Model the fold of this input.
Amino acid sequence: QVQLVESGGGLVQAGGSLRLSCAASGRTFSSRVMGWFRQAPGNEREFVAAITWSGNTYYADSVKGRFTVTRDNAKNTVYLQMNSLKPEDTAVYYCAADLTWDGSSWSKGNYWGQGTQVTVSS
Done:
């Protein structure tokens, strides 16, 4: 079992920055592929970023160059640094564990946090 707790969301003006954190329980955090998804009202949940146990990172095209995903295995925490935020980044952001790659997309994983709201004003 893995429990994930996100924090760091809030309201920011366009062009601003936020850093989301996701604290994970469990002793096998370092071996898990961790990721971030987001869901805007009326939209499906979409992939944002993933990071493997070795630190390889993957991003959705819409956030590439603006968002950075990192992890601190000693703290069982994964981060999402979001820069140059746009109003279209407004969504609930979810942390996920145990993502898998099927050759064309990332799965939604086996464990989810409760989500944290990010609102970007224009």
Q: What stands out?
A: The first strand starts at residue 4 and ends at 7.
